[in-house]
Design brief:
With 359 residues, the chain is mostly helical. The chain has helices at 2-19, 32-45, 49-58, 61-65, 70-89, 111-134, 142-164, 168-193, 198-222, 226-251, 259-276, 288-295, 299-321, 327-358. The protein contains 14 helices and no strands. The structure holds zinc ion.
């Protein structure tokens, strides 16, 4: 399965590199129907103070809270007029401004992607809590994995914001945060390879952080080059995935639990095909990108379950290296205590909630 994973990932990343130049083509907003509709709508509603004031008075609060201005509203309405025209002509509906037409909900542009991004965020929050509960605070990589969880939480937060409202700032934050999440995963691999060598780990952390800061600085303050950002993200993701798979292959006999890491990498690799094979949204709600976000919901559960197992393994290894009597039992006992504490805490929380309900 692992070699299949490597081959599959190489194929997916090559395919993604191939589609980079075609990502921003959107003939819908360049069509005659759209342009005519937009000129009329914009001229009628958005060009004079009186018209703008009428527009703001008539606009539902939720749309103004979600920063839909007059021009955006015209674009949204004209997009659906154009979709109707395409249907009447019996031709395929194209993208508009680089996106498929989506039915907005409560002012959110891509509600399905928002919901699935929030589920990913929630999964990472739950697993960060579980990790803190079940992993020993003295275990190697204890703080590293929490840092990775925070990077993922940050990335999914900005993904939810960006899919709610696509403006330049939210788009840049989403792209940069997603790159940060992938880079943090690669950092975890490097730190794991250098485990129990704190100075080398520190040097690797500083090097990766410096590289990331340079990348963000270039994008934010020099030029936001989408192609360059995508190439960097794909390169980091490819090295990260192949690296983790090779590491799993190497240690699989001693560390049986690494199947969780390998499965996570293979799962993400398989889901990347959704980004390659884009299609018109089902019911104007579910497109390939939203399904890619739905598919990654189980990832933090699998990934941090691996992280918990790995910190247990490393704790045992540290104790074994110190050559104390019956090492594995001691480590097991310590971890058992921690697990019991978490179980007790969870049971206590549930009991407390039950008591409150009874009252
Ligand atoms: Zn997204």
């Amino acid at each position: 399965m692992l070699w299949f994973g490597v081959a599959q990932l190489c194929l997916c990343f090559s395919a993604l590199c191939y589609i980079i130049p075609t990502i921003d083509a959107s003939p819908g907003d360049g069509s005659w129907v759209f342009q005519k509709c937009f000129r009329n709508c914009n001229g009628r509603n958005c060009t004079t103070n009186a018209a703008l004031s009428r527009f703001h008075k008539a606009q539902p609060t939720v749309l103004s809270v979600m920063q839909w201005n007059c021009e955006d509203e015209c674009k949204y309405q004209c997009m659906w007029q154009s979709v109707e025209a395409y249907h009447k002509d019996g031709t395929d509906v194209p993208q508009f401004y680089g996106k498929w037409p989506f039915i907005r909900l409560l002012g959110m542009q891509e509600p399905a992607s928002v919901l699935f991004s929030l589920l990913n965020l929630l999964g990472n929050v739950i697993m960060l809590y579980k990790f803190r509960c079940y992993a020993l605070s003295t275990a190697p990589m204890y703080y590293c994995w929490q840092f990775a969880a925070l990077c993922a939480i940050n990335a999914w937060f900005w993904a939810a914001v960006f899919h709610s409202r696509d403006v330049l700032f939210t788009e840049h934050m989403d792209y940069v945060s997603a790159t940060g999440m992938v880079a943090s995963s690669l950092l975890m691999l490097i730190l794991r390879l250098l485990v129990l060598r704190p100075w080398l780990q520190f040097a690797a952390f500083v090097a990766v952080l410096a590289g990331f800061i340079y990348h963000v600085h270039y994008l934010m303050f020099v030029r936001f080059d989408y192609g360059y950002n995508m190439e960097v993200s794909i390169a980091v993701a490819a090295v990260n995935s192949v690296g983790w798979i090779l590491w799993c292959l190497y240690v699989r006999k001693k560390q049986k639990y690494v199947w969780k890491a390998a499965l996570t990498i293979c799962l993400v690799g398989s889901l990347v095909t959704l980004e390659v094979g884009d299609f018109i949204p089902f019911y104007w709600v579910f497109d390939a990108h939203s399904l890619w976000h739905l598919g990654t919901v189980p990832v933090p559960f699998l990934w941090f379950s691996f992280a918990i197992d790995d910190t247990h393994y490393l704790s045992r290894k540290v104790i074994e290296d110190q050559q104390t009597p019956k090492p594995s039992n001691i480590a097991q006992d310590v971890m058992g205590d921690k697990k019991d504490n978490c179980d007790k805490k969870e049971k206590g929380d549930k009991k407390e909630k039950g008591d409150k309900k009874d009252k």
